[in-house]
Design a protein that fits this description.
Strand 5, helix 8 and strand 6 form a beta-alpha-beta unit. The C terminus is likely disordered. About 30% of the residues lie in helices and about 15% in strands. The protein contains 15 helices and 18 strands. The strands form four sheets. It has a ten-stranded mixed β-sheet, sandwiched between helices. Strands 13-16-17-18 form a four-stranded antiparallel β-sheet, covered by helices on one side. A two-stranded antiparallel ribbon has the order 1-2. It has about 525 residues and is α/β, with parallel strands linked by helices.
């Protein structure tokens, strides 16, 4: 695979939603001809993607780019893009960092436009009841394992490269979807953000967890200031090691790595995990807007990069056999179990397999991703592990009208720390039983850290979650409460803690207090 730092960032153009390009008369004439050939079908472009000024592109470059865009047109009975027949679909899971529905235009946002996500939603399925966990690490542990945080143990946020103390995500004790689909014959790739292992200690851990190739921000590594950079001048880990990519924009590097992976593996089934660094803070400028650093420009650039990926699928003739799932790791109410924290935008698209134009209230949560990936790829479920999730493959393939779920759950968030024990340093969760929410399509039950129900919300009547109806005498409310309490009663009485064998302590793990003690010890020995 090409080094992720290679140039040519803009060699591919995004899909888009402009009806007509702004350009000179020659350019508009060519596009009008394409539109006429397509009948009632429109050729979409994104205004920030294709730069069609005559001064910026030669006629030959323009014609080449326009031909590639025309290849994505779909007409009844005719596909202009070359297809590669294959029994197994490609799978791409895109997870944006820290983004709620209120900043996605197909979910009604008035703050920002996300045209490429909108195209995916219009041409596929848009979910209204999809749960992640409320914060980064609990969500990542859940999607990797197919287990709830109370089972895999990553209930709280713990930034492994920063806080260390031997803690890490361990393949010895945890399943990982990449290992499952890899065993089913898939080429596997991750590019973006990881943050639950320290690559200084475990440089090949992503291979061990099932990813053939990888290009990821290391996360901030304590004692290594350059590693704090994920955007401009990013510090990135690949099979060649970790280093700074001076003068480059990290999200472009992660995206280009995936585009190269697609081109190199287009003739075999592939699974791509794309945990984006955008739109997490710190606020940053982007290559499209170098004067402004705010959430809006970051969301717009995230959308642009998604468009580049989709266009690459078209270029390589595999669009109709690639299932793209796009979502986020938590919403704007980060760390809270409000709907704004846990109920995420969730879009599934594949022109050849997924029904188009569907808005579904089906219940899904992130435990369902692993069994769905296994179902789609023909992989076996992990042996020796309890999997909490249920496959929603029949739903997205048009073979069912609903998911098989009657409830979904979210829990976790807030940082924890390592504690020194007789057996060394260990990371423990802040509560033996973490508060959580369980909901169906209408009612949502809040459970406290004492394992007792605290609040019941009718989400259809009260989407802002202001009115607690737990003491209502209405029969339908009492029935809903009894149903959700029964679900909660089936959970373990105590949550698991992260499962791992502690790695050896490193120099950066030693606290200032411990350093002082060691220095005093040396002085006393000298005396």
């Amino acid at each position: 695979m090409r080094n992720p730092g290679d140039a040519d960032l803009d060699s591919r153009s995004p899909i888009g939603v402009e009806d007509k390009l702004r350009g000179n008369d020659t350019h508009e004439f060519i596009i009008d001809g394409l539109l006429a050939a397509a009948g009632s079908f429109r050729l979409h472009f994104w205004k920030e993607g294709l730069k069609m000024n005559a001064d910026a592109q030669s006629r030959r470059q323009f014609l080449k780019t326009t031909a590639l865009a025309a290849g994505s047109l779909v007409m009844p009975g005719l596909s202009l893009a070359k297809k590669t027949p294959r029994d197994k679909p490609n799978i791409i899971f895109i997870m944006v960092d820290d983004l709620g529905k209120e900043m996605v235009s197909c979910y009604g946002s008035a703050q920002v436009e996300t045209p490429n996500i909108d195209v995916l939603a219009e041409g596929g399925m848009r979910f209204t009841n999809a749960y992640s966990m409320p914060q980064c690490v609990p969500t990542r542990g859940t999607l990797l394992t197919g287990q709830y945080p109370f089972r895999h143990g990553w209930v709280n946020h713990y930034d492994v490269p920063r806080w260390g103390k031997g803690c890490h995500f361990s393949g010895k004790y945890n399943p990982c979807f990449a290992n499952q689909v890899k065993a089913a014959g898939y080429a596997t790739c991750i590019s973006g953000k990881w943050q639950i292992n320290d690559f200084r200690i475990q440089p090949k851990i992503l291979n061990e967890l099932g990813f053939d190739e990888y290009c990821v921000w290391t996360g901030y590594e304590k004692g290594n200031p350059p590693s704090d950079k994920r955007y401009w001048n990013p510090y990135i880990h690949t099979a060649q090691g970790s280093k700074t990519y001076k003068g480059q924009f990290g999200p472009d590097i992660y995206n280009r790595f995936i585009l190269d992976f697609i081109e190199e593996h287009k003739n075999q089934p592939m699974m791509i995990y794309y945990p984006m660094n955008l739109t997490h803070g710190p606020l940053t400028t982007t290559p499209h807007n170098k004067e402004t650093s705010n959430k809006k420009v970051m969301v717009e650039y995230m959308d642009y990069l998604v468009g580049k990926l989709i266009n690459a699928l078209d270029e390589n003739g595999i669009r109709d056999n690639t299932i793209v799932i796009w979502s986020t790791d938590n919403g704007s109410a980060k760390g809270k179990t409000l709907e704004r924290g846990a109920c995420e935008p969730f879009v599934v698209n594949c022109p050849g397999l997924v029904p188009r134009g569907v808005v579904t209230d089906a219940l899904v949560d992130f435990t369902d991703l692993l069994p769905t990936f296994c179902d789609l790829s023909g992989a076996e479920l992990p042996k020796g592990h309890t999997i909490d999730g249920k496959s929603f493959a029949p739903l997205i393939l048009g073979k069912a009208d609903d998911s098989s779920r009657e409830w979904i759950m979210a829990m976790g968030g807030g940082a924890t720390s390592a504690v020194k024990t007789d057996g060394g340093w260990r990371v423990f969760n802040r509560y033996e039983y973490r508060d959580r929410v369980i909901r169906d399509k209408q009612y949502k039950l809040y459970i406290g850290t004492n394992r007792k129900p605290e609040k019941l919300i009718d989400l259809k009547a009260d989407p802002q979650e202001k009115n607690n109806i737990i003491d209502s005498g209405k029969p339908e409310v009492k029935a809903a409460l009894a149903k959700l309490k029964k679900v909660a009663a089936g959970f373990p009485e105590k949550d698991a803690n992260p499962k791992y064998d502690p790695l050896p302590l490193q120099p950066w793990d030693v606290t200032a207090e411990e350093k002082k003690k060691k220095q005093k010890g040396r002085k006393s020995r000298k005396i």
